[in-house]
Structure formats: C-alpha cells, structure tokens
Write a sequence for this structure.
C-alpha cells in the first residue's frame, strides 16, 4: 500500500486592463464571477486571472497543461468561460492515478484596482463552489505592491496562488 504525501504547486497569471477599443462586450470576471461595473481585462477568453492561476497550479500537480493549446482550442470553438478551463484541469486531477486530494488554496493578488476587500468573500464563495474545497480552506489577499510593478500601478491584475494537496507516493 502506498503512503500519501503532501505537495504544493504554484500557479501564476496576469492580464492587462482593456484599452477603450476592446471594452465593448467584455466584463471583468474574477473567480468565476462577473463584475460588470469594473474595467475588464484583455484576453482571448474572459481573462479570469484568478481561475487561470488556479488552472496553472493544478497543471503543476498533474503535469498536464490546460492553458495554451487546450484552452486555445476551446476559444476557437467559442468557449471563452474560464470555468471550462478549470473543469478540464479538475478532470485531469480526478483521472490522475496518484489519487489527488486538495487541501488548501492561498491566492495573492497584485493590483491597484479594483479594491479587492469588497469582492473577497464573493470570490472565495464562488471558488468553493467550483473547487473541491470549503470556503475556510481558501484564502485571498491583495496588495498594490507599493506601485512597483505595472499591476501595482493599475495597468492590470496579477495573481499568484499556492495549491496544497496530497497524493499517493
């Protein structure tokens, strides 16, 4: 019988805010939720920077990339909702012979805008509905990084997350 080991994976993504000519029909989407009163992000998909970082973290566990060719193929079919990309990543996780169990997700956002304090609980609740994690196993914090980067100066949003899991050794 194999023993279970604990591992972590890092996910990262960033997107810039849309210029005025790309805003039509776009909505800011974060953690699977639309925020129509806030400036949208650029991207082939809905540019959900939080879900993209989580997909990358899951890909780090499974070794199967979702963002890139697989997500681009979905975009070409008109599927631009990042929840579909997360579903692919979770399917890879479920099919992996190492029997993964997720334990904790820590998300760090760097952005000058929007203010994340009023959005935090809604995003965590949404993520708990999308992931096999309870709300208390998901943390989200945000910083402007003292304006040292483009995201900290308000040009976009950058997300770094750490996903903790266990699996068979």
């Amino acid at each position: 019988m194999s023993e279970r080991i604990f591992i972590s994976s890092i996910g990262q993504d960033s997107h810039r805010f849309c210029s005025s000519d790309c805003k039509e029909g776009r909505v800011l989407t974060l953690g699977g939720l639309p925020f129509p009163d806030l400036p949208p992000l650029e991207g082939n998909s809905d540019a959900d920077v939080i879900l993209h970082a989580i997909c990358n973290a899951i890909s780090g566990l499974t070794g199967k990339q979702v963002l890139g060719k697989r997500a681009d193929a979905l975009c070409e079919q008109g599927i631009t909702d990042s929840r579909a990309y997360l579903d692919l990543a979770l399917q890879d996780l479920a099919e992996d012979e190492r029997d993964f169990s997720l334990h904790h997700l820590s998300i760090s956002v760097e952005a000058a805008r929007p203010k994340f304090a009023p959005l935090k609980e809604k995003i965590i609740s949404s993520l708990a509905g999308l992931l096999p994690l309870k709300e208390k196993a998901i943390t989200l914090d945000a910083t402007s990084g003292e304006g040292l980067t483009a995201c900290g100066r308000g040009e976009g949003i950058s997300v770094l997350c750490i996903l903790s899991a266990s699996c068979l050794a």
In short: The chain has a mean pLDDT of 95. Helices lie at 49-62, 69-76, 82-95, 120-130. The radius of gyration is 16 Å.
